């Protein structure tokens, strides 16, 4: 059995058993492990390093648009949940409840935040006095808990990490502008950093956030043609402002309710990039968020000078800001090649006695498997340029899939055929919940986003006049 | 009433009512607020920005010493707590317990981590196979919950943020080396970044971490002469390794238990720097961790060119990596001076029409109130140099207090007089728990650390032979 096959055989076939491929890959590359409590995950350091890179990129974007970080308590009085009618209906069934603290039964049970609109609303109500205090632009990096029956690492776990932005504004226009601005930041981030082009748009009433006036989402197409909701931005109108009495004294001397928004992305994004870019050999991590961007593998490592040259090269690359590492373990080069391919490192650099003598290195791209030689001089520039090419190519591949795999349907049968073929399907919709439910029932596809600027004549389901064009897909 | 007094009067007098001064300052400078659930806090953005700076500094030090970040589940099966006898005794009384999830009573109650030795021990047991896997050097940034009866923002709250390092090693020597290395990093960080010189040393059996073989702590002297435990590093021996079966196959072919450590600091450090450096006007935040290092106050802001000059200067300082801001609100300069003094910004820069004409700015240090003029040219270098001076001076002031306020005692009466005078007290101790308890009872002082390299003849309490010299103090 060839070395290659040993590794490929460790993971299920990506095209015939994608769910199993996913589980194999996330566990074997040590991104994640199962926690002791059912439905929980341990984010191992290789996975957490991706999250740190995501945080760094997003946090810079939030701060550049005037947001500041804060931290709100995780434990929320149960009664807060009930103040906004839709909110409690949506979240009460999935909360974890603390009933005992310090050895005593609590007078009022506390929920572990599933999201923080309620506790943050309570504080904004206290802090907000005058129109001069607006807008309030705050973000929080935190853990949240939602009790889930069926879980999968990164995609759906009872506890996960995320950021949640919560803002308050004087007018509907401003709040809506904020909602769309943050959706735009998520989209730009997904494309620039994760190399994932996304569909964005408004969600249907059925799919919106519990308590929002309108939810806007971004949807990413995965390897199997299913969709993953990768981020959402909610316009909350005055729903939470009324429930928590978030009011301000306006210029005209009257008290008014504020308009609020919330928006979030989570460790789910790690699942998204795995399922968007992986191949049969394992992960392919976009360079911008890769924990290791370039792995140096010394060839004939025991020959004099080889380990030193590898260490020199590593230092040179690191000094240029490249996340480089050298694998100096006892494993064979072939074993290392396969392991680092499985771990999705975008660039492999081989360096052996003959290369050193010739003053060169061998570079192998993870995405195309293309092998090139380059002088050791200017190594950092060469590596940086190649990493940019990998990043651009991953985006291009994902963009091509996203464009090629969208079909239209005029009947539910066509819609079914479309999603079964691994496509997103655009179809007319009358706007009624019954048709949306029926489509879900018959095709296992849900309305991902409402498509702006396109028109259809008839509803794909009931045949009545279409009010909107909707993008349907099966989803994670 | 002078402007100055309006502000000073907002906060209690630092010398006659320090506890009230503390509460006034943390609330009025908007570092923190009380959460809706008793004992919880909201870390507002001005406070959270200090935490972000602390995180950045510490995280770089952890990574430079080979540690990597990961994330472990917050919910821990109750039974895990009971596996290590001392651990459960210490922590069980203060845990928050989840008994309901997803609308159903849980089969086994879950505790919200008060600390993560147990859940991390369980994972290390699974991951650790061979001596080649050692050492394991992992850190986690997380929230923890400990049910507390008496709480105070930053100092003691039911939920707080911290980092907890958890490492596993092949030998006692290595684990002890790690324990002391991390204590050293904490000490260096406290002095370099927080401008707080600390006493470090081993804790007595009574004061050690529940489940540790030995705890080493760092103690910081506050404005009122009381001590604050600002960080701890624990040598856990094989206690948790045996409780959680953390074993490895050693070179000699036998299975051995690992030796583990844990170490942590928390948002308590924010309380430490407030109580170490504040004065009657409010906070004094050391420049290295200050959210705003230099605040620009335009004088005669409506005169042409003033706001532009302030904006230019801000941009110039920010470009040089200085956290500068300009207060362009409608408030009067006097009001701004006082507000930013209360908020502890290390440097104020005044710029008005005459300054602009003369190409200069006025600089006022928060620590010494010293006022100087400097050319606008090279502003960044000037400001950077002054910030370094402020940082050095704060450390020097704290160091002087730390040295001047340590006395020795040969009787419990002397010890009492010492701590009542706002001092730390060195005294001989026989090593028995009875004397330690009696001293606490009679003086309200506890053993902070055991002093290395010093000797005393008699125990301050029973008069028998002293085995150790102990540093006693009243503590937060």
From TrEMBL, chains A, B:
SUPFAM superfamilies: C-terminal domain of ProRS, Class II aaRS ABD-related, Class II aaRS and biotin synthetases. It catalyses: tRNA(Pro) + L-proline + ATP = L-prolyl-tRNA(Pro) + AMP + diphosphate. Keywords: Aminoacyl-tRNA synthetase, ATP-binding, Cytoplasm, Ligase, Nucleotide-binding, Protein biosynthesis. GO terms for biological process: prolyl-tRNA aminoacylation. Its EC number is 6.1.1.15. One of its GO terms (cellular component) is cytoplasm. Transmembrane segments: none annotated. One of its GO terms (molecular function) is catalytic activity, acting on a protein. The keyword Protein biosynthesis applies. It holds the Pfam family HGTP_anticodon. InterPro entries: aa-tRNA-synt_IIb, aa-tRNA-synth_II, aa-tRNA-synth_II/BPL/LPL, Anticodon-bd, Anticodon-bd_dom_sf, Pro-tRNA-ligase_IIa, Pro-tRNA-ligase_IIa_arc-type, Pro-tRNA_ligase_II_C. It comes from the Bacteria. CDD domains: ProRS_anticodon_zinc, ProRS_core_arch_euk. Residues 39-286 form the Aminoacyl-transfer RNA synthetases class-II family profile domain. SMART domains: ProRS-C_1. It is found in: Cytoplasm. Homodimer. Catalyzes the attachment of proline to tRNA(Pro) in a two-step reaction: proline is first activated by ATP to form Pro-AMP and then transferred to the acceptor end of tRNA(Pro). PANTHER family: BIFUNCTIONAL GLUTAMATE_PROLINE--TRNA LIGASE, PROLYL-TRNA SYNTHETASE. Consists of three domains: the N-terminal catalytic domain, the anticodon-binding domain and the C-terminal extension. Belongs to the class-II aminoacyl-tRNA synthetase family. ProS type 3 subfamily. HAMAP family: Pro_tRNA_synth_type3 (MF_01571). NCBIfam families: proS_fam_I. This is Proline--tRNA ligase. It comes from Candidatus Borkfalkia faecavium. The lineage of its organism: Bacteria, Bacillati, Bacillota, Clostridia, Christensenellales. The gene is proS.
């Amino acid at each position: 059995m060839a070395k290659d096959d040993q590794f490929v055989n460790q993971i299920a076939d990506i095209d015939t058993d994608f769910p199993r491929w996913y589980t194999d890959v996330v566990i074997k590359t040590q991104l994640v492990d199962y926690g002791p409590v059912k439905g929980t995950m341990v984010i191992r350091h290789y996975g957490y390093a991706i999250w740190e890179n995501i945080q760094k990129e997003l946090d810079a974007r939030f701060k550049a648009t005037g947001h500041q970080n804060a931290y709100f308590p995780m434990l929320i009085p149960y009664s807060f949940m009930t103040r906004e009618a839709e909110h409690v209906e949506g979240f009460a069934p999935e909360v974890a409840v603390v009933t005992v603290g310090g050895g005593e039964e609590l007078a009022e049970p506390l929920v572990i935040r599933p999201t923080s609109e309620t506790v943050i609303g309570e504080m904004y109500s206290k802090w907000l006095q005058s129109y001069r205090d607006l807008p309030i632009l705050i973000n929080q990096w935190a853990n949240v808990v939602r009790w889930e029956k069926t879980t999968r690492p990164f995609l759906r776990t009872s506890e996960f990490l995320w950021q949640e932005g919560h803002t308050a504004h004087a007018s509907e226009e401003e709040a809506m502008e904020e909602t769309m601005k943050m959706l735009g930041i998520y989209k730009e981030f997904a494309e620039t950093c994760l190399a994932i082009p996304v569909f964005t748009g408004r969600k249907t009433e059925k799919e919106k956030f519990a308590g929002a006036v309108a939810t806007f989402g971004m949807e990413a197409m995965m390897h199997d043609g299913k969709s993953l909701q990768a981020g959402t931005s909610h316009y909350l109108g005055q729903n939470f402002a009324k429930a928590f009495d978030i009011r301000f004294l306006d210029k005209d001397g009257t008290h008014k309710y504020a308009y609020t928004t919330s928006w979030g992305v989570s460790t789910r994004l790690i699942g998204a990039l795995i399922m968007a870019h992986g191949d049969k050999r394992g992960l392919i991590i976009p360079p911008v968020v890769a924990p290791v961007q370039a792995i140096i593998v010394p060839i004939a490592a025991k020959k004099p000078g080889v380990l030193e040259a590898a260490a020199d090269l590593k230092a040179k690359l690191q000094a240029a800001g490249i996340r480089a590492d050298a694998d100096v373990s006892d494993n064979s080069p072939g074993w290392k090649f396969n392991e680092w391919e499985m771990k999705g490192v975008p660039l492999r650099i081989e360096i052996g006695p003959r290369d050193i003598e010739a003053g060169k290195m061998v570079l192998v791209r993870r995405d195309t498997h293309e092998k090139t030689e380059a002088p050791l001089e200017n190594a950092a520039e060469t590596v940086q340029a190649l990493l940019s090419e990998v990043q651009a190519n991953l985006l291009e591949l994902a963009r091509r899939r996203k464009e090629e795999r969208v079909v239209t349907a005029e009947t539910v049968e066509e819609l079914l055929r479309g999603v079964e073929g691994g496509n997103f399907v655009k179809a007319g919709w009358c706007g009624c919940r019954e048709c949306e439910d029926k489509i879900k029932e018959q095709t296992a596809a849900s309305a991902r986003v409402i498509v702006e600027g396109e028109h259809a004549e008839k509803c794909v389901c009931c045949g009545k006049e279409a009010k909107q064009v909707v993008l349907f897909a099966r989803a994670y």
